[in-house]
Design brief:
Mean pLDDT: 75
Strand order of the largest sheet: 1-2-3
Order of helices and strands: HHHHHEEHE
Number of helices: 6
Radius of gyration: 20 Å
Number of strands: 3
């Protein structure tokens, strides 16, 4: 019975890691950088002035539609990220509820599932609080994902200054009680 529970947890962790990988990969693709590092993005920005005549004409034809499309894409990212996070958490919680309410599962395993269910609920609450506090710091949009001892923060900004990263790190560390090494802070360009 304990082996079955461990397999379920392993499956859950693998699914969660897969979802995180897909989200991070989609971030890299949507930024237009195959490697996805900030250095590569900065290098790609320098090439923007090297457009040929056809590309310049195409941009002029699109006119004001391009900024609106970019705005929608940015909003969609944060909305989609939250929806995906909620979907994954909902699946986790459903599976844990099944374990908690299954009388055939050993009491120790049911208690572990119950504790994990409470932890997920607390993580959800902290994520929402952190997102609100980050927005209060002046960022237009933010998403937070807490997974065990790791916290991933994505804010809507062209780039982050060291001071901003330090402020966000301190905020997350204070709310979640994790070391700074366990906090990842990313920016999503406007």
């Amino acid at each position: 019975m304990a082996l079955l529970l461990r397999r379920e947890w392993l499956w859950l962790v693998l699914c969660l890691l897969l979802v995180l990988f897909i989200i991070l990969y989609s971030l890299q693709i949507s930024d237009g950088a195959p490697g996805g590092t900030e250095g590569e993005l900065a290098a790609g920005e320098g090439r923007e002035g090297e457009k040929n005549e056809g590309e310049k004409e195409e941009e002029k034809e699109e006119g004001e539609e391009l900024p609106e499309q970019l705005k929608e894409a940015e909003t969609d990212f944060f909305i989609e990220y939250r929806l995906e996070r909620e979907r994954v958490r909902s699946q986790q919680m459903d599976m844990l509820r099944e374990i908690v309410h299954n009388p055939n599962i050993e009491p120790e395993n049911r208690r572990e599932a119950h504790d994990r269910l409470l932890q997920i609920s607390q993580d959800l609450e902290r994520e929402m609080e952190l997102e609100g506090l980050i927005k209060a710091k002046g960022f237009r949009e933010a998403v937070v994902f807490i997974n065990g001892g790791q916290v991933h923060v994505v804010v809507k900004a062209e780039h982050l200054e060291k001071k901003q990263v330090a402020q966000l790190g301190d905020l997350v560390q204070g709310m979640c009680g994790v070391p700074l090494e366990a906090i990842v802070i990313d920016s999503r360009p406007r």
